[in-house]
Design goal:
With 288 residues, the chain is an alpha+beta fold. It is 61% helix and 15% strand. The chain has three domains: 89 residues, Ribosomal Protein S5, domain 2 (2-Layer Sandwich); 42 residues, no CATH class; 135 residues, Butyryl-CoA Dehydrogenase, subunit A, domain 3. The protein is built from eight helices and six strands; from the N terminus they run E-E-E-H-E-E-H-H-E-H-H-H-H-H. It is rod-shaped, with a radius of gyration of 36 Å.
Length: 288
């Protein structure tokens, strides 16, 4: 099943632990490239986040952003560092002895002193588990979006395959008429040059010309490649690179048809084919 590499997912959760918001963005890329941005309190989750993302995604540039706002009472009971307080009081006495006229700090200023007041230790486990569970939801949403968009891209590619099938058949039907017209034109020119042509030699040259103009082999390969495109689109794995290679092969055969073209109609078919193949290639650039 084809999957798009462009998608977005956002989930959030609010409870006693606070507010958690995951945002996942994915765009096309040759390989899987992950950018994980976590708040400091949840930095330890990065290996688990990367592992989960790699298990679900094959290609794409993916940004995983987590926002966290703790609940007002999530930090635990405030505690006073008595050791810090004693050291600070000792320093204040020394300063007062040296600068007796200096103004003493008020109580609020003291409480804001770094390290004097600390939050009680809290167990990070529940918050980490909640963040990972929410990430799994966001990742599921991203994958579902990629699958929906991939199905739409596959429909577009299959539609172009059908149009190319019709052009292949059109070229097959046209070739006998093209070869007959070339034979008649060549025979008329040669008869103008010389009336003493060897009929057997002329037929040999005609046969060689018809062989050079024949495109049945190219049309067979085009049909085979189109069947392979349809088969690959059904695979349950990343298929973008394989499809891109098939586009190159399709374009090669369409170019050969154009180089062998002996009339305007066949040239027009070749141009139509290349336009459709380019449209397919543009869609395939975004398939995982």
């Amino acid at each position: 099943m084809a999957k798009s590499m462009t998608a977005f997912s956002r989930v959030e959760r609010r409870d006693g632990l606070g507010e958690l918001v995951w945002e996942l963005r994915s765009v096309n890329h040759r390989y899987l490239e992950l950018f994980v941005r976590l708040p400091e309190d949840l930095r330890a989750l990065e290996p688990a986040v990367r592992e989960r993302a790699r298990a679900s995604l094959g290609r794409g540039k993916v940004e995983c952003l987590l926002r966290y706002r703790p609940a007002p009472d999530a930090g635990g009971e405030l505690q006073l560092s008595t050791g810090q307080l004693e050291q600070l009081a000792d320093l204040m006495e020394k300063v007062a002895a040296r600068l007796p006229r200096a103004r003493q700090p008020d109580l609020l200023q003291l409480l804001n002193w770094p390290g004097l007041v600390q939050s009680g230790e809290t167990d990070p486990g529940p918050l980490q588990q909640a963040a990972l569970a929410l990430f799994d939801q966001a990742l599921d949403g991203l994958v579902a979006t990629r699958e929906r968009e991939g199905a739409r891209l596959a429909e577009l590619v299959l539609d172009r395959c059908g149009q190319l099938d019709a052009l292949v058949e059109k070229a097959r039907r046209r070739m006998p008429l093209v070869i007959d017209n070339v034979r008649q034109r060549l025979r008329a020119r040669l008869e103008e040059v010389s009336r003493d042509l060897d009929p057997e030699r002329l037929e040999q040259e005609m046969a060689l010309l018809a062989q050079r103009l024949d495109v049945d082999e190219e049309m067979d390969r085009l049909a085979t490649h189109l069947d392979e495109v349809r088969r690959v689109l059904k695979l349950e794995q990343p298929v973008g690179r394989r499809l891109d290679f098939l586009m190159q092969e399709l374009n090669r055969e369409a170019n050969t048809l154009g180089s062998k073209s002996a009339d305007a109609g066949t040239s027009a078919i070749s141009v139509e084919m290349k336009v459709l193949i380019e449209q397919m290639r543009e869609q395939i650039q975004n398939i995982e």
